[in-house]
Amino acid sequence: MKQIVPSSSISIAGNVVTLTGVNVPLSQILLIADTASGTILYSVAGPAPVSYTQATNSAITLASTPGGSAKLAVFYDDAASPALDGIDGSGITAPTGGSGIRGWLSGIYKFVSNPLAVFPAPVSSVSQVTNTATTSSGSTVALAANSATKLLAIMNTASSGSLYVGIGSAATTSSFVLAAGQGYEFPVIPSQAVYLLGSGSVTYSILYA
Known about the structure:
Elements: E1 2-4, E2 10-13, E3 16-19, E4 29-34, E5 39-43, E6 51-53, E7 58-61, E8 72-77, H1 100-113, H2 115-118, E9 127-134, E10 140-143, E11 152-156, E12 163-167, E13 176-178, E14 183-185, E15 194-198, E16 201-208
Antiparallel strand pairs: 1-8, 2-3, 3-7, 4-5, 4-8, 6-7, 9-16, 10-15, 11-14, 11-16, 12-13, 12-15
C-alpha cells in the first residue's frame, strides 16, 4: 500500500535523507521530491541515488542536495495488502495452496462445483423396525448406536397413547414425545442409540439407513 512519510520522520543532513521508522528496500521507495522548488530528487524512474542503506531508519544519499529550506515529500510502498476483504469468520480456515481473495474464491468454486463432496450420497436401501413400546417394559433400546446412520424417522403408529423418545439415554415421560399417529424425521442424524417408552402399549415404526 502506498504511504507518505510524515515530515516529522524525515531528517536531512547534506544530501543524506534519513527516514525514521521506514524499513523497506530501495525498490519500495517510490519518490522523493522537494516541494518548495518542485524538484524530483529521486524516483524509481530516476534520478538514481548515490547509495541507500536499509535499516530501522533507512537512509538514502541523493545525487542532488536539497535546498536549505527544502520541504520533502517522500512516498513509499509498505508492501502490505489493503484490508478490503475483511477478516475470516471464527472456526473457518482458508483452503491450502492459495492465498488472499483468489485462494478463498478457488476454494469456494471447488466446494460448489463438486456437490458429491458436500452432500452425502443418496442411500441405496432403507430398513424398517416395527415393535411395541410399553410402560411395563420401561425404556428399551429400539435402535442400536451407529455412527454410519444417514436416515432416521420414527412414527407412533398407535391409535392412542404417547411414544417417548430418548437419544443416547433412557426415555422418560419428560423426553421428546410423539402423539398417536405422529411421526418425526430427524434433520440432524444422531449416532447414539434410540430408546423408546410407551404410555401403555404403543406401537411404533422406525425407518433408518
